[in-house]
Write a structure and sequence with these properties.
The structure holds two protein chains of two kinds. In chain A, 85% of the residues lie in helices and 0% in strands. Chain A is mostly helical. Chain A has one domain. The two termini of chain A are 25 Å apart. Chain B is mainly α. Chain B has one domain. Chains A and B meet through helix 9, helix 10 and helix 11 of A and helix 5 and helix 6 of B.
Chain lengths: 221, 262
């Protein structure tokens, strides 16, 4: 347990020391969202209608951008091997690293999303649900992303490859995440969508660390 | 399957023997089933009362969809076998199944698009089934891309095994969430608990074509795995020859080989 807390504290400390990495993700999120009105025209009705989709897709891509931070540096300087040799199971270490990744990307993205929502006219109903759905949905993206980052460790063009591997797997998260916000805007029941997001999170929490740890062992062999 | 038989065909030579014995039968069955199925489907089955003659695309389209899904399962099972038993041929089966499965998926998408144009008035709709087929294609492409992304082919194979299994768990989740999201496609008409809702005159050619696709898959898979094994052997023989030739000092006057200069 101490090892796991140590890993978490270390990853968070590294993220704070290199705060630029985390803020770049948020800046990307902002710029990418701001591009849509240029592409689609400034019609407020249209923008408000597609705001949940834009915010969710952009947040997904922003989270994806930062996945290379997860294992690559640790792999390059040998830290990953030390972690694999530590008494804590590698599966748990992977889960903790995914948690650290979420705390430094998913959480800020979720908290920032309603501000960008205002730019697109998404105010009042839907804003709270946007934060909630991102809070429940983005940990799943970090967990699935950890699998992608682990299997592509040491591959050529790993950034593009991670996107190709991970994006299809995150479609369910996207569907229910956007579904929750849309339901809130049209005054439907939000709970089923959030429940599905929770189920996806529980499922990926139980399954993905095994796959990520297996992939890391391959990379370390 | 007893473990004995199972392990015997992990030996590539024995596998080639078995494959070579099966391949002619698989091709023969494909021609018989496919020929009869296409004859029934194209010339000797009723046109649909709503869809008219275009319904005949079904005999090419629906079995392709079955095979697209079946190939993914085959690939995942082969990957699991490769992980659990370190079965040498299973990796080759997974790799070659991915190529064939992706082709079936493309065939399904293209024929579906051609069918959708006259029926729905559009080449593509973001309907649940079409979308999940498209996602399936992405999963195949991801598997193939990951396999070829490493300088060490062994590492690529091992990583691809994992992603095949991860994808396999996700396929039903993606399918049902996409279905929840949007559906326009007609519901399944053959595999239903209360019996098929399709007329026997159409079901017979459809099932014949399904059989033909399956034997076609078997034939293609075995041919591809066999040639993959042979290709690998040819490469290692060529390498060995090159090394034997390069061993003599006068064969390497430019001193290109490390340590060749005396």
């Amino acid at each position: 347990m101490n090892t796991l807390l140590g890993v978490l504290a270390r990853d968070l400390k590294l993220a704070i020391r290199q705060i630029g990495d985390a803020t770049t993700v948020l800046v990307f999120f902002t710029i990418a969202v701001a591009l849509f009105p240029f592409g689609l025209g400034p019609d407020p009705v249209l923008l408000k209608k597609i705001a949940p989709g834009i915010l969710w897709v952009t947040a997904l891509l922003a989270a994806l951008l930062s996945l290379d931070r997860l294992f690559e540096a640790d792999h390059a300087d040998g830290t990953l091997e030390q972690l694999a040799l530590s008494p804590a199971p590698l599966e748990a270490i992977v889960a903790v690293k995914a948690l650290a990744h979420w705390l430094t990307t998913g959480l800020p993205l979720a908290l920032m999303a309603p501000l960008l929502g205002i730019l697109l006219g998404l105010t009042g109903e839907g804003s709270l649900e946007l934060v909630l759905s991102l809070l429940i949905g983005t940990p799943t993206i970090s967990l699935i992303g950890a699998v992608g980052a682990a299997v592509t460790l040491g591959a050529r063009r790993s950034g593009v490859l991670v996107a190709l591997l991970i994006l299809p797997l995150t479609i369910p998260v996207l569907i229910f995440g956007v579904g929750a916000v849309d339901a809130a805007i049209t005054a439907l029941d939000v709970a089923p969508h959030l429940a599905f997001l929770g189920a996806l999170l529980a499922g990926s929490l139980a399954l993905t660390p095994w796959a990520s740890a297996a992939a890391l062992r391959l990379a370390l062999r | 399957m007893s473990t004995n038989v199972f392990h015997r065909y992990a030996n590539p030579t024995k596998f080639i023997g078995l494959a070579s014995a099966i391949i002619p039968f698989a091709w023969g069955l494909t021609i018989l089933l496919g020929g009869y199925g296409l004859y029934l489907g194209l010339f000797n089955s009723p046109a649909d009362y709503q869809q008219g003659e275009t319904v005949r695309i079904m005999y090419v389209h629906v079995p392709a969809a079955w095979m697209a899904l079946g190939c993914y399962t085959t690939m995942a099972i082969a990957s699991a076998i490769a992980i659990i038993w370190k079965h040498a041929v299973a990796d080759l089966i997974a790799e070659e199944t991915a190529v064939i499965g992706a082709t079936f998926t493309v065939l399904c998408l293209v024929t579906g698009s051609l069918w959708g144009q006259p029926m729905w008035g559009t080449w593509w709709v973001w309907d649940a089934r079409l979308t999940s087929m498209l996602v399936l294609l992405f999963l195949y492409l991801g598997f193939m891309a990951l396999k070829n992304a490493f300088d060490d082919p062994q590492r690529g194979t091992q990583a691809a095994r994992l992603i095949a299994l991860v994808g396999w768990i996700n396929v039903p989740i993606i399918k049902y969430s996409v279905e929840w999201w949007n559906t326009l496609h007609q519901p399944a008409a053959v595999a239903r608990l209360d019996g098929p809702t399709i007329h026997p005159d159409m079901l017979t050619p459809l099932l014949l074509m399904g059989g033909a696709y399956m034997t076609l898959f078997t034939a293609l898979l075995l041919v591809r795995v066999r040639s993959h094994i042979m290709e690998r052997r040819a490469r290692s023989i060529a390498l060995a020859l090159a090394e034997a030739r390069g061993a003599g000092p006068d064969e390497d006057p430019a001193g290109l080989r490390d340590g060749a200069t005396p």
